[in-house]
């Protein structure tokens, strides 16, 4: 069973970085990963396939690429990425987000 986490203010744990995020893990288990991360303007997570996930923008503006479709990703936006869908994020301004991955990461057999 996962340990309980309570973060009264996500701003206390987010780290903003570039070129990619430095996530603060709240839960890190094989079937569930929950994190808060931040990107500086121009920072990005390149598109990649992954398990089902939910992303919520907490602050700032960016773009999320979901299977080649560019979606605005700003404060309050929620994106649900289906299993295996390609997803990537690019920050336009300083961007903080919550990510919840549901399911195990694929095993690289290459």
Structure characterization notes:
The chain is an all-beta fold. 0% of the residues lie in helices and 55% in strands. It has a single domain, classed as Jelly Rolls. It has strands at 16-17, 24-29, 32-39, 44-49, 52-59, 61-66, 69-74, 78-81, 86-91, 95-102. The strands form 2 sheets. Strands 1, 2, 3, 5, 8 and 10 form a 6-stranded mixed β-sheet that branches. The chain starts with 15 loop residues before the first strand and ends in an 8-residue tail after the last strand.
Helix count?
Answer: 0
**Share of β-strand residues:** over 45%
Whole-number total of structural domains: 1
Fraction in helix: under 10%
From the coordinates shown, what is the CATH architecture? Answer: Sandwich
Q: What string, H for helix and E for strand, traces the elements in order?
A: EEEEEEEEEE
**Helix-and-strand structural type:** mainly beta
Contiguous uncertain segments of 5+ residues = none
How many strand units?
10
Topology:
Blueprint: E1 16-17, E2 24-29, E3 32-39, E4 44-49, E5 52-59, E6 61-66, E7 69-74, E8 78-81, E9 86-91, E10 95-102
Parallel strand pairs: 1-3
Antiparallel strand pairs: 2-3, 3-10, 4-9, 5-8, 5-10, 6-7, 6-9
Summarize this, please?
The chain is mostly beta strands and 110 residues long. Helix content is 0%, strand content 55%.
């Amino acid at each position: 069973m996962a340990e309980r986490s309570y973060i009264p203010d996500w701003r206390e744990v987010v780290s903003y970085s570039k070129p990619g995020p430095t996530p603060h893990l709240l839960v890190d288990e094989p079937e569930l990963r929950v994190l808060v991360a931040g990107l500086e303007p121009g920072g990005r997570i390149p598109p990649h396939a992954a398990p089902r996930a939910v992303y919520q923008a907490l602050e700032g503006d960016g773009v999320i690429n979901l299977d080649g479709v560019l979606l605005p990703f700003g404060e309050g936006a929620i994106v649900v990425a289906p299993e295996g869908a390609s997803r990537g994020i690019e920050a336009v301004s300083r961007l903080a987000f919550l990510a919840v991955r549901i399911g195990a990461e694929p095993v690289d057999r290459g």
